[in-house]
Design brief:
Distance between the termini: 45 Å
Radius of gyration: 19 Å
Structural class: mainly alpha
Strand content: under 5%
Largest sheet: 2 strands, antiparallel
Number of helices: 11
Order of helices and strands: HHHEEHHHHHHHH
Bound molecules: zinc ion
Helix content: 55-70%
Strand order of the largest sheet: 1-2
Length: 196
């Protein structure tokens, strides 16, 4: 099955299999990718207000562009400057921006670290989250490994693996399959809150 660099702006698939209610099911992937490229390549030259961006892209702005733009904003690839212009984040800025999760249960895990009894769910949730926001596997592995050490999670013990690296490598399937993080995060966060 072919996989694509940009997610479908509606259902987020990166394969040719859209969700059943997706607005863009049946849309040619080159068309979807072109909409992203139109926006990203135009903003590479510098921030623009949305109205200017709509005029500046090389083709006529359509609903696919609107959907791609809201996806890019939602995924924090593009942010709004203080003057209201849309600004493309550099790969480094983006990586920093998404490194600290802002969702409630993920934040609990990230800040307090995991405790024995919920390590599996906690690591699962963080790996799934970083995959969802678009970090590469090497970036994900590095961030989660650092978190295991920096949050004190590794010191608390309760792992069968010999190193934090091995723990994260053991969750590679979560990254590859693109599982959702919500349920695992909530279960882990509940355990962490009870132990505090
Ligand atoms: Zn779709």
């Amino acid at each position: 099955m072919a996989r694509f660099e940009y997610p479908c702006p509606d259902c987020r698939t990166t394969s040719s299999l859209h969700k059943s209610d997706c607005r863009f099911d049946g849309t040619d992937w080159t068309t979807i990718e072109r909409a992203y490229v139109n926006i990203l390549s135009t903003l590479t030259d510098g921030p623009l207000r949305e109205g200017r961006l709509r005029e500046a892209i090389p083709v006529r702005w359509d609903r696919l562009h609107s959907a791609a733009l809201s996806r890019l904003r939602h995924d924090q690839r593009i942010q709004e400057t203080e003057s209201g212009a849309l600004e493309l984040l550099s790969p480094e800025e983006f990586s920093e921006q998404v490194a600290v999760p802002t969702h409630d249960s993920l934040q609990t895990i990230y800040e307090h670290g995991s405790v024995p009894g919920c390590h599996d769910h906690a690591v699962f949730a963080l790996v799934a989250y970083y995959e969802m926001v678009g970090l590469s596997w090497p970036e994900t592995r590095e961030r989660v490994t650092d978190w295991l050490r920096d949050s004190g999670t590794w010191e608390r013990g309760g792992f069968e693996e010999e190193s934090p690296e091995a723990v994260v490598t053991g969750k590679r399937h979560v990254y590859v399959r693109g599982y959702g993080w919500k349920q695992a995060a909530e279960e882990a966060a509940n355990v962490i809150k009870r132990r505090r």
